């Protein structure tokens, strides 16, 4: 189980592919975390039902319990995942459990996640070639 962290800064951002504003909790080292309960609401899932199952995933070792403040609940401690873990977490879903309108958005995000390593490799290769041309 993760330790509770109190030094947290909260902002909002637009969640890529879902066009929804979500709270983002930043730790003192600048690591952004997204509350799982908010993500579940967006996807049409009951977080209390699924969190027990998700905690068995290796990915959950990076999850933390952080204080989330919002108008609806006030301030409460919730499970949060690091922003960078979201694409991997998205790949763990049974699509039938999702709200139909969110399935396509989730599939688009997964598709982009799959293409990301190749895109990064190509950018690095281009940069390498530019540096090599400049030096030689």
List keywords for this structure.
five-stranded antiparallel β-sheet; alpha+beta; globular; 136 residues; 4 helices
Helix content: 40-55%
Q: Tell me the structural class.
A: alpha+beta
Rounded average pLDDT:
83
Taken as a percent bin, the fraction of beta residues is 25-35%
**H/E element order:** EEEHHEEHH
Distance between the termini: 53 Å
What is the 3D shape? globular
Q: Largest beta sheet: what is the strand line-up?
A: 1-2-3-5-4
The number of E-state strands comes to 5
Question: Would you kindly provide a written description of the structure presented here, covering whatever features stand out?
Answer:
This protein has 136 residues and is an alpha+beta fold. The chain has one domain (8-135). Helix content is 42%, strand content 26%. A hairpin with a 4-residue loop joins strand 1 (8-15) and strand 2. The radius of gyration is 18 Å and the shape is globular. The chain starts with 7 loop residues before the first strand and ends with a helix.
Layout of SSEs?
Layout: E1 8-15, E2 20-27, E3 32-35, H1 36-43, H2 47-54, E4 64-70, E5 74-82, H3 86-90, H4 100-135
Antiparallel strand pairs: 1-2, 2-3, 3-5, 4-5
Quick summary:
The protein is α+β, with helices and mostly antiparallel strands. The protein is 42% helix and 26% strand. The model has no long low-confidence stretch (mean pLDDT 83).
């Amino acid at each position: 189980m993760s330790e509770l962290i109190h030094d947290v800064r909260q902002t909002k951002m637009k969640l890529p592919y879902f066009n929804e504003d979500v709270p983002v909790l930043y730790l003192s080292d600048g690591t952004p975390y997204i509350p799982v309960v908010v993500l579940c609401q967006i996807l049409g899932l009951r977080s209390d039902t699924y969190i027990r199952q998700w905690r068995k995933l290796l990915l959950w070792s990076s999850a933390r319990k952080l204080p989330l403040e919002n108008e609806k609940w006030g301030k409460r401690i919730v499970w949060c995942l690091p922003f960078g873990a979201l694409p991997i977490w998205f790949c763990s879903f049974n699509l039938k459990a999702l709200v139909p309108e969110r399935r396509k958005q989730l599939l688009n995000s997964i598709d982009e996640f799959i293409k990301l390593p190749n895109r990064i490799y190509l950018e690095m290769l281009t940069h390498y070639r530019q540096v090599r041309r400049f030096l030689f």
